[in-house]
């Protein structure tokens, strides 16, 4: 590979995901959390399988063989169908990133070599400065979002208060009216705006405002790192409002702050003083930690499903109950080598030919850190993972097996509980109550 090509590649590596997405014509994505935008993949379609995260400088697509990446070149390869394991495909992806043709391989003069090396040094310096600036900005943004999430949860009302009536009624509807233990970490907001998109002036737009249930995400030390919001409409299906942007339905649950690596404590957890040693205040600055003696953990994606299982087994005194927030946080990333072809779902490739949809497989990605997926308290030696039966079965099945493989150790037994196909455990409780 020529020296000119080396500089060409170095320049492409310095381009951020945000810059590349704009240059590559990525459009139609909607904001969804901290620095993240979600929508249809420009290559393989869908409705929400594709996302970019400008804070993490990452992209993801459930239809991609590799799942996603953390540089602009891999994004261009996915969108352009370039085989980057080969020289030509890799350079073609770089060309898409830069919007320039690949340089020819003509021998360079001594003067051209010196000029190229100077440009290369400048590109590397600019790239390093940009990366440091982005890292600093991302850290500051994350800290602000975490502070907002802690403040939102800390300012909310406990369920026993008058403001918690709507949340208590919501839980009764979703869980068949069964009795619940005290839930000090689930709280209520009387009129929470639902922000979606911007107006022509670039200001955020609230398309709905209404009561919401708010729950904290806590990190492995018990500090509140984010919050989970569920909007409520008792007259709607599943007691959640029907929100749309155009013809497309919107999720009625959102998250603020950080989620990955954290969990939502439900039952079997207690307040503890902050690690700084300041006095316990009973507010959002306190840690939330597992109660001693509870060596079993029941955890699912959602709050309602985990509570439903707790109701069914009588909220055992040896058990912690928690939610992960979503399947990605529960399962963690997959090893790209284990991805497989879906047996029935297809997508068009870059030439319009239908091919089997790629599904993230059951093997965890090697070398994961604590921020890649939910962490289990050290005291837990038995774990029950709660699956959803109303999600796509092959992707969900692979994800649950991946979670089991990730969390199982020589000293910890892990099992998976599956509801009937097409239902979740909360649905089963509701049906049983209606039939009684």
UniProtKB/TrEMBL annotation:
Q: Which residues form the DUF7146 domain?
A: 144-263
GO terms classed as biological process: DNA replication
Show the taxonomic lineage: Bacteria, Pseudomonadati, Pseudomonadota, Alphaproteobacteria, Hyphomicrobiales
One Pfam family cited in the UniProt record for this chain: DUF7146
The protein in question is named: DUF7146 domain-containing protein
GO MF terms on file? DNA binding; zinc ion binding
The organism encoding this protein is Aurantimonas aggregata
